[in-house]
UniProtKB/TrEMBL annotation:
<dbReference type="Pfam" id="PF03358">
    <property type="entry name" value="FMN_red"/>
</dbReference>
<dbReference type="InterPro" id="IPR050712">
    <property type="entry name" value="NAD(P)H-dep_reductase"/>
</dbReference>
<protein>
    <submittedName>
        <fullName>NADPH-dependent oxidoreductase</fullName>
    </submittedName>
</protein>
<dbReference type="GO" id="GO:0010181">
    <property type="term" value="F:FMN binding"/>
</dbReference>
<dbReference type="InterPro" id="IPR005025">
    <property type="entry name" value="FMN_Rdtase-like_dom"/>
</dbReference>
<dbReference type="GO" id="GO:0005829">
    <property type="term" value="C:cytosol"/>
</dbReference>
<dbReference type="GO" id="GO:0016491">
    <property type="term" value="F:oxidoreductase activity"/>
</dbReference>
<feature type="domain" description="NADPH-dependent FMN reductase-like">
    <location>
        <begin position="4"/>
        <end position="148"/>
    </location>
</feature>
<dbReference type="InterPro" id="IPR029039">
    <property type="entry name" value="Flavoprotein-like_sf"/>
</dbReference>
């Protein structure tokens, strides 16, 4: 059976370059991998008060993460750190205390930016949170995609150099996931 990878896109923008990169990773992945973007824009902001009777959106999100074999984040950097919607999703999945859905899911992070820096700061801030929520993260190869507005062909696919990078990177992540049994 194909490995199910939950993909969290840190941008809520309709024409998001990060969403396009996530779609390219899905297209370039092997047959044994099924990438699904799990939407995070509908999740109410986390409050422990609400967890007395959790919103349906939280319950559905938590279940989708539980059902997955791995977590792939594709995100922009906002003000040199993690976009709020992505951080909220991380928090929602981590609670109630003792019932976090994250531990043991093999993860990886891709960041991109319209600047040349490729979202490096956000990439490492996401990694920092993932250490605490016990997601075993692929360390290498790293993925910082710069100039994200300029890497597209007219048909919506990434330019050749970027496609090659994404395919090789995805292959490394597939190996990483295959090294884990489902938790
Ligand atoms: C609130 C906000 C903060 C941003 N801060 C950064 C930043 O710190 N570093 C950076 O490289 N780009 C920053 N950007 C620019 C993003 O790289 C750019 O908007 C990018 O297209 C966002 O990703 P998306 O296309 O997936 O929505 C910021 C954009 C927004 C909307």
């Amino acid at each position: 059976m194909a490995k199910k990878i939950a993909v969290l896109v840190g941008s809520l923008r309709k024409e998001s370059f990060n969403r396009k990169i996530a779609n390219e990773l899905s297209r370039l992945s092997s047959d044994g991998f099924d990438l699904e973007i799990i939407e995070i824009g509908n999740l109410p902001l986390y409050s422990e008060d609400l967890d007395q009777s959790p919103p349906q959106e939280w319950t559905d999100f938590r279940q989708k993460i539980k059902n997955s074999d791995g977590i792939l984040v594709v995100s922009p950097e906002y003000n040199r750190t993690i976009p709020g919607a992505l951080k909220n999703a991380i928090d929602v999945g981590s609670r109630p205390y003792g019932s976090s859905v994250w531990p043991g899911k093999p993860g990886a992070v891709v960041t991109s930016s319209i600047s040349s820096l490729g979202g490096l700061a956000a990439n490492h801030h996401i990694r920092q949170a993932f250490v605490f929520i016990d997601v075993p993260l692929m360390q290498q190869p790293e993925a910082y995609i710069g100039n994200s507005s300029q890497i597209w062909n007219d048909d919506g696919t990434a330019v050749e150099e970027t496609q090659k990078f994404l395919k090789d990177w995805m292959g490394a992540y597939e190996k990483w996931v295959n090294g884990f049994s489902k938790s």
